[in-house]
Amino acid sequence: MTNEHEVRSASEQFYTAAKAVLRGDPAPMLAVWSHREDASYCDTRGEIVMGWPALEQYWRRAAAINAAVPGHITATAQITHAVVNGDLAYVVALEEVHQEGDSSEMLARATLIYRREEDGLGGWRLLHRHTDAAPKSREWKL
User: Fold this and answer.
1) What is the pLDDT of residues 119-138, one digit of tens each?
2) Closest CA to 93 of 110, 105, 76, 74
């Protein structure tokens, strides 16, 4: 398996983990992240989460909130670009989130940065993730 395939596989595992969080289960998400202090996440609401302890708390809280949401939430992603350079890699993706019973959808652009570490997803752990709402002026579908 090439490094790019490994990173794409790590991203697929991230999106599987995201779906678990939407169902109220944080465990898969906690497994994909680097557990080091330099890990970080910038979410679509503008929150910046720094360091493993804060990330763990963030994802546990997100799972608990989602478990209490009435209706089914679904998410899909399309990886548009993946680049590997040594022990670092990044992935660009387009994402959609829908809630059952709600006609609106959240469209987002995401950048995921991975680092090859001793353990984890074929050695690749999520180091940083940044998401922002996709511009409303652009029409796109996954």
Assistant:
1) 655 589 999 999 988 776 45
2) 110
